[in-house]
Amino acid sequence: MSKGDEPLALPVLAERGRRRTPPVRIVHIGLGAFHRAHQAWYTDAVDEQGEWGIAAFTGRSPVASRLLAAQDCLYTVVVRDAESDAASVVESIVEAVDGDDLERFVELMRAAQTSVVTMTVTESGYRLTRGGLLDLGDPLVRHDLSELTASEAPRPVTAVGRLVHGLRARRDAGAAGLAVVPCDNMPDNGGYLRRGVLDLARRIEPALAAWIEDEISFVSTSVDRITPKVSDSDIAAVAPLTGWIDAAPVITEPFHDWVLSGSFPAGRPDWEHAGARFVDDIVPFELRKLWLLNGAHSLLAYVGSLRGHATVAAAVADPLCRSLVEDFWDSASRHLPVWLDLDEYRGALLGRFGNPRIEHRLGQIGMEGVTKLSVRIIPVLRAERESSRRGEACVSVIAAWISLLLRGDPLPDARRADIEPLLGLPADEAVPGLLALLAPDLASDGALVGDIIDALHVSR
Predict the structure, then answer these.
(1) Which runs of consecutive H residues, i.e. helices, occur in 138-273?
(2) Which domain holds residue 74?
(3) Interval 175-191: pLDDT, tens
(4) CATH, residue 25
(5) Neighbouring C-beta atoms of residue 151, cutoff 10 Å
(6) Does the pTM of the predicted model rise above 0.85?
(7) Residue 2, in any domain of the structure
């Protein structure tokens, strides 16, 4: 099959066939591009004996499950560097399931061979407070509390609600414990999820909470692989590259990193053979990634958008944006251990950000600003001001976010109902209100509010 053949003349990926179909031992919540470029990719890379199949459940939309199911759950990972593409077919997902199919979810959670539950539902998808407890102001959380408490056939809709529902079914089936592995960008994400799960379990059945405390391990992780949204042109480019038509490919960068801390009582794949690292203290790795990579991404998303850029590569090529990134990294690096090889990490990030063939859209990164800024920027700002510095680079990021909101940019955010009433106010009233969404205690810091207002005038 020559590269010039028309895609319609090529066979579909399902016709390729599988080398193996491993049994389901991993249940994943939140089927999306990142999971397929990261956890599923790692599993495929190390599962030579075909022992670790993944059943992946979608979150809010069933589209990914339909696309993958139609091609026998096979898909292409295209690793894109600055000059070329390399493609491989991943076989670790053996079931792609609509998240609303609770019957299949419960069936798998009850199965003795299910050993690991992984999750990628985005930071806001956990619907927990900053401390990791249930957000009782969220109507979907209240719905799940009612369903799991009173209904004989509950239909929880949140990720945490469904997880607790599945764990209760596992307990009732007499199955042994397993590991739950959240892979979203929150500090101590394993502990964070554990607190939320136990909070919900205690409210519906204290004995269930006690069983979870004894039997279920919550593993903290730091995950890293830039995986932009796939475009129609990306999909069209896969067929000539591979010889197969794939309606659900994933585009990603060569770099990949996975750091984990915690126990796996029922076993796990040998992810370390593909480069994963298992450590006793994950906090330094989490903070390095959250602040240097994710924090810089948010900076570029807001400052870059104000300056008319659409992608990370375009924004980081802008001397002003690049200078602000370096300033922010200087601030964050002062509060990280030197043994993390920060200069090398920063240099690698600049290369990754500048890859012109990875179209990481600023609009995608800028979504859910309240949640993201709270964990990516605010901790660095606090550390700087506690060290008698003003944290100018952090202030610039917050001011750029506010400036975009005030000029009417439709930044999707789970806290939009709280944001909207503030947008018609004068800046000296809007800034404290918006800052309070990120860090309530900082809204009363007059000097900080003044710095943000000053930076806001500059950014606008």
Answers:
(1) 139-150, 159-173, 189-204, 206-215, 232-242
(2) 7-278
(3) 999 999 999 999 999 99
(4) 3.40.50.720
(5) 10
(6) yes
(7) no
